[in-house]
Design a protein that fits this description.
With about 100 residues, this protein is mainly alpha-helical. It has one domain: 434 Repressor (Amino-terminal Domain). Helices cover about 60% and strands about 0% of the residues.
Length: about 100
């Protein structure tokens, strides 16, 4: 009986392609940030609709903000507000690009 393919297996196979890997790495910080935002909201027990009310916006804006497939990049002030209403602050950190070495 053959084993079903997994997302992890697909990801690992795709990342062997240098072009795919470069694109993936260029987007990884945005994905990480959005995953953290969703995790913090869920940890607080807040729905997207509740989050929208807390921020004075529409639920569709929260959905778009949290979407890893959205091509719209949120403003820093928006991310700061999102964190603040959940009791967090953000820290932007610049690190040397290891590929440039």
């Amino acid at each position: 009986m053959s084993k079903r393919p997994t997302i992890e297996g697909f990801r690992n196979k795709a990342l062997k392609n240098p072009q795919v890997k470069a694109e993936y790495e260029s987007l990884s910080s945005a994905f990480d940030m959005k995953r953290q935002m969703i995790a913090l909201r869920k940890k607080a027990g807040v729905t997207q609709e509740q989050m929208a009310k807390m921020l004075g916006t529409a639920k569709s804006n929260i959905s778009r903000l949290e979407s890893v497939s959205s091509e719209i990049s949120p403003r820093l002030a928006t991310v700061e507000d999102y964190a603040r209403v959940l009791g967090y602050s953000i820290k932007v950190e610049f690190k040397p690009d290891q590929k440039a070495s």
